[in-house]
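Reopening this one. Same input as before:
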Amino acid sequence: MFEKSKYTYVPELQKHSFFFDHVKIYWNEQITFHKQKTWELSYVITGSGTRIIGDTIEPFSRNEIILIPPDIPHCWSFNEFDADETGRIENITLTFSDLFLEKCIAAFPEMDKYIKRMQHNTEAISFKGNTLIQLQNLMLSMIKQTEIERISSLIKLLVLISSPEDSNAVGKPIIEDKKTIRMQKIQLYIMNNYQNNINLDEMAKLIELDKSSFCIFFKKMTGKTFFSYLTEYRIESSCQMLIQTNLSIAEICFISGFKDIPYYNRVFKRIKNKTPTEYRKTAS
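Same output, byte for byte:
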């Protein structure tokens, strides 16, 4: 397990002013927790799960588009059950540097106010409404475009993503001190292992503390005991499965890391104020 987020190097290719990547990969082949010096625009076409962006961990679903400024650590952890028939997820990633943006302003002064407005934003944002629809259509069209055609599409994208009124903040920059790094490691471990048995000994060892110190640290950082946090995470994960799959309640119970169906139902009712069946009916 890494000590801190990895930096991902995005090459400044002499013949390319920005990087466009459209992939269909297996659900567990995504890049791990990382950050880079470039801006990133990510479109999840197929897949859902949990993501960490800066100081925020929350579920995500297909069709979302996220803009991440430079130096904000992030990762997407995809669910196995939400993929295509071959077990693959699909996404589009665009990356571009501040140097590229400055060159755009120099070449096209009309872009100045849009780019400066975007650069003024320091938080990762998720788009909604008409802006989201336009971004989806543009990014999908870029799959079949030539490199020259993608340049004009990117200019249109830059104008669209500079509109904060159609967006929500989904992650702030963080200072990677020792406490933060420890919490990142815990959160990533839970994301990747919540379906399995997790005990305090392995968690304490993960961040190099004894069991008692781990419990004190976790309670201080979250205001919750570790197992309360883990249980809530499992419930939230099961909610995603209730909404997005046709799996039975029993299957979802075990996939979410619970070993007893009556217990799962009781905990779900306590946290969500309704049974899993009621939750699924309401969501649908």
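So the earlier flakiness isn't reproducible anymore. For the record, Confidence is low (pLDDT under 50) at residues 1-10.
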